[in-house]
Amino acid sequence: MHFDTIIRNGTVVTASDTFKSDVGILNGxxxxxxxxxxxxxxxxxxxxxxxxxxxIDSHVHLDQPSGDGIVMADDFDTGTRSAAIGGNSTVLxxxxxxxxxxxxxxxxxxxxxxxxxxxxxxxxxxxxTDPTPEVLGQELPALVxxxxxxxxVFMTYEGLRLRDxxxxxxxxxxxxxxxxVMVHCxxxxxxxxxxxxxxxxxxxxxxxxxxxxxVAAEREATHRALSLAEIVDVPVVIVHVSxxxxxxxxxxxxxxxxxxxxxxxxxxxxxTADDLDQTELEGAKYVxxxxxxxxxxxxxxxxxxxxxxxxLFSSDHCPFRYDDAEGKLxxxxxxxxxxxxxxxxxxxxxxxxxxxxxxxxxxxxxxxxVAVTSTxxxxxxxxxxxxxxxxxxxxxxxxxxxxxxxxxxxNDLLQHGADYTPYEGLDVQGWPxxxxxxxxxxxxxxxxxxxxAGQYLPRSRSHLTTRQQA
Length: 470
Ligand code: URP
Ligand code: ZN
Ligand code: ZN
Ligand code: ZN
Fold this sequence. Notes:
Layout: E1 2-8, E2 11-13, E3 18-20, E4 22-26, E5 29-34, E6 39-45, E7 50-53, E8 55-60, H1 76-85, E9 88-96, H2 103-114, E10 121-127, H3 133-145, E11 150-154, H4 164-177, E12 180-184, H5 188-200, H6 208-211, H7 215-232, E13 236-238, H8 244-255, E14 260-264, H9 267-270, H10 295-306, E15 312-313, H11 331-335, H12 350-359, H13 366-380, E16 398-408, H14 411-414, E17 427-437, E18 440-444, E19 447-448
């Protein structure tokens, strides 16, 4: 058999197996896994490298508007470039419904933002901010059929949050349609109350972002989200879990028999609230929600990854420029933490950080790495087995990892639109030295080889909401 490309002499790693094999690629797909493949237009020597499915980052914010003229640092061009540099072949971004807007209108806008700009494959989660009977009754069922099979709802953020009855109605629609709902769990009323108290006490520095969003506000909302899902009998994803108590809520809900997926992110392994407590306004760089906690919480999140409480390790990439009047240091944000835009960049650093801190330090296996960074994202969000694995018939989305390569993370390396990385100066071991998407080499060395080759991906339903084995 003659292939377009053969990857030779590498070690293939999937979520379940690690084995020596050549990989034959034909027409953008993996066509053979066998030894001694010989005939191809291009032969890539992967001696000493791991041949892994490209990363799938299912929690990425790109080109979202926010009030106050604050501008997200990445659009679909820079954001997906950075994703590719960091070894990702697919990202799932958010399509934000504005109040009063139909989901179709919102999707039209986000498809236009993405058109012709994506360097990796993309799909959209629908963020429901206005769950009217029309939206839930008419639009959503049709959109799920069209391949928009996941939603996000917020329990926090004024203007975005849903009331419990609205969350129930959205969850119920998800149950009927087979959509999967992601929930951002923080108790908005508690946070508002604490912000008011901080204001009375004259506490305005970035570090107070963390003290106004305590663990109990996340734990309570997590418990409530899980209870609401139980009431209408539907699976949910609890996103960006930052601490042990919220994680234990997931464990308990599973013990009760609920189908839950859990997600954590690099910031909860690598940062703490102390990072927000720095001289001047340096702490603004680390403002995200939920906030980074403490060392014990970091250990808990590691434990959750090791033990499978967390299915997903995502970046929650939500980039703002730091030294910028339209970013973290806007005029109001300098005076009061509540106006600092929430979110940090991380789409390029997610995989190297977990590889280095998790795999190289012996906390998780190579197979767990692949599961939580790629395979589980594909299964949960309706892209499996086309994406998320190395198997005959799958898209040839392949990251070649050099486990010996040592890199010091610097902002320049990441090629995103933000003017900082929270991980500046961090030494990592292991780097994605080459990325193929549907058989095409997209990244080699430190640069993009091919521009805007990404495609939009309509999706099937989640393995969690269908009766298939997850
Ligand atoms: O601070 C964060 N995480 N910003 C992004 C929006 C969200 O809540 O995921
Ligand atoms: Zn969120
Ligand atoms: Zn509880
Ligand atoms: Zn997010």
